[in-house]
Amino acid sequence: MDSTLSCPHPLAIRCKYCVPWYAYILDCKGNPLARRHLARRRQPKRSLSDTMMQMAEQEAMAMPEAWRRTELARHPERPYPMDFIEALFTDFSEIHGDRAFGDDPAMACGMARFHGRPVLVVANLKGRTLKERVARKFGSPDPEGYRKALRAMKVAEKFGHPIFTFLDLAGANPGIGAEERGQGEAIARNLLEMARLRVPTIATVTGEGGSGGALALAVADRVLMLENAIYTVISPEGCASIMWKDASKKQQAADALRYTAFSAKELGCVDDVLAEPDGGTHLDPACAMAMVDERLRFHLAALDAKPIEELLEERYRKFRNIAQFYTIAE
């Protein structure tokens, strides 16, 4: 007879490290050798990977919530904006060039169909491989990228097509060439023109939404954020370097910036927080895409029900009143 089947331990049937029945008998008699044997056998052997996983979980639980969400927003396996476009839209036809300087590989925009309806989709591109990331400047658009996006938005406005934008970027490209070609003007122009587009607009922050580079694609009727995304004026590393002259205090900066989805919604910076699968979007992309699809359909239907003049007025009022709050001195 298998000794484990006679063991009173509740996990005897399914635990191969279970203590054999005779160890209990000897232990009851006070045998010190049996007690040591019992202690060794009661604990299952752990592999190195299990130990490392447990250490990682303990470290994650010790982090501030804002920094945990930052790590998830930056996860290398997290779906990028183009992944959402490929999953949620059909018949995507990309538009290239800004008709002034060139085409920006860090920005993609084009006509597509959303449940059969013609729409415009705009997204920044990061790239998966190192070669792609370098070519796309790690997802940071140049001025020609923003001008290309605005040109496409004007085409969509002309034909009355709704506009969807997807954001996952740390910020606009701060390089010398970008500044020489008018990076600041390109972003400011997008802010102005998006505020008065006469079509429904929906922006979704899927990962990082950093600085003016993200805002230049997010002046929309509805601004949505995935649960573990961040939307911030500066990176936590940059904030820590300025405030404390120490980038290692990034976790403290992340907590102070209040840039998580729920904090941004509380401040009125976003309109809806989209739920993610347990553990993050990267663990179940299909489920995450289905959740995003459902919310996009809901918000588009709500916008369609309103006259365009009402949409423009609500859009203006929303961005004029963002992050206004008052405290009463006691």
- Segments where pLDDT lies below 50 for 5+ residues? 1-34
Report strand %.
15-25%
- Main pleated-sheet profile: 8 strands, mixed
CATH fold-level topology = 2-enoyl-CoA Hydratase, Chain A, domain 1
Please give the domain count. 1
Could you say which overall geometry the principal axes of the C-alpha atoms support? globular
Helicity, as a percent range = 40-55%
**Which secondary-structure class do the elements indicate?**
alpha/beta
CATH superfamily: 2-enoyl-CoA Hydratase, Chain A, domain 1
What is the CATH-assigned architecture?
Alpha-Beta Complex
Task: Describe the secondary structure blueprint for this structure.
Elements: H1 21-28, H2 32-42, H3 48-62, H4 65-73, H5 81-88, E1 90-95, E2 107-114, E3 117-124, H6 130-135, H7 143-159, E4 163-169, H8 176-180, H9 183-194, E5 201-210, H10 211-215, E6 222-226, E7 230-232, H11 236-243, H12 250-257, H13 261-266, E8 272-274, H14 285-304, H15 308-320
Parallel strand pairs: 3-4, 4-5, 5-6, 5-7, 6-8
Antiparallel strand pairs: 1-2, 2-3
Helix pairs in contact: 1-2, 4-12, 7-9, 11-12
